[in-house]
Amino acid sequence: MRKVALAATVALTLVLSACESGTNTEDESNWLTLSECESMKSPLILTTEFDEYPTSVEVIRTTIKNPTDKDIIFGEPFHLEKLIDEEWRIVPFIEDGGFFFSIANVASANSERNAGLDIHRHFKRLTEGTYRISYITYSQEEPFTGVEPILKFRSNEFIVTK
Q1: Which structural domain, as residue segments, surrounds residue 59?
Q2: Scanning 71, 75, 82, 143, which has its CA 20 to 30 A from the CA of 31?
Q3: Of 86, 44, 87, whose CA–CA distance to 62 is shortest?
Q4: How far apart are CA 147 and CA 139, in angstroms?
Q5: pTM value?
Q6: 101-147 pLDDT tens trace
Q7: Helices and strands (H, E) in the chain, number of each type
Q8: CATH number at residue 21
Q9: Read out DSSP for 133-155?
Q10: How far out from the chain centre does Cα 70 lie?
């Protein structure tokens, strides 16, 4: 299991780096669209504590639920996505704000886990709009080779207001 977690951590870090490149800009029209980083859907369910947050939000608490009979590995890094002109775009990290520990988390079979996401550490103050959070994980094909298809799992949509 340690080899699997290490391989997953390295691969997740590489994929997130590829999807993040070129996104650090103020102009929302230049943010990456999700079609540029899209993939299949993971069975994990991600929900936020609230459906509405202020623009000054510092931490968003989430619950990750694994309704399957298998453990699922996912990375520590997350993306914040914003709906802009009917299209989901990845919110860029602040300079030096895209740093995450390379930890492979395990969502145990038929379980839930809670996490607090430090929004203020990774992003500029949020503007009003509709957002969601996404993580990536791997398919759980056996045997694990480290190159399985990437799966994305997302939170419910939530509103940010003043």
Answers
A1: 2-161
A2: 75
A3: 44
A4: 9
A5: 0.72
A6: 667 788 889 999 998 999 998 899 999 999 999 887 765 555 555 55
A7: 2, 12
A8: 2.60.40.10
A9: EEEEEE---SS--S-SPEEEEEP
A10: 20
Q: Look at strands 52-54 and 87-90 and give their pairing.
A: unpaired
How remote is the C-alpha of 34 from its chain's centroid? 12
DSSP E strands: which ranges in the chain? Answer: 40-41, 45-48, 52-54, 59-66, 72-75, 79-84, 87-90, 104-107, 111-118, 129-138, 150-154, 158-161
Beta bridge partner(s), residue 138: 150
**Residue with token string 């993971």:** 42
List pLDDT tens digits, range 142-162.
Answer: 555 555 556 678 889 999 999
Query: Which one, of 88, 109, 112, 2, lies nearest residue 37 by Cα?
Result: 88
Instruction: Return the residue matching tokens 């992003």.
Output: 123
Token pair belonging to 74:
């996912």
In angstroms, rounded to a whole number, what is the distance separating the alpha carbons of residues 91 and 145? 31
Q: How many domains does the chain have?
A: 1
79 or 39: which carries more pLDDT confidence?
A: 79
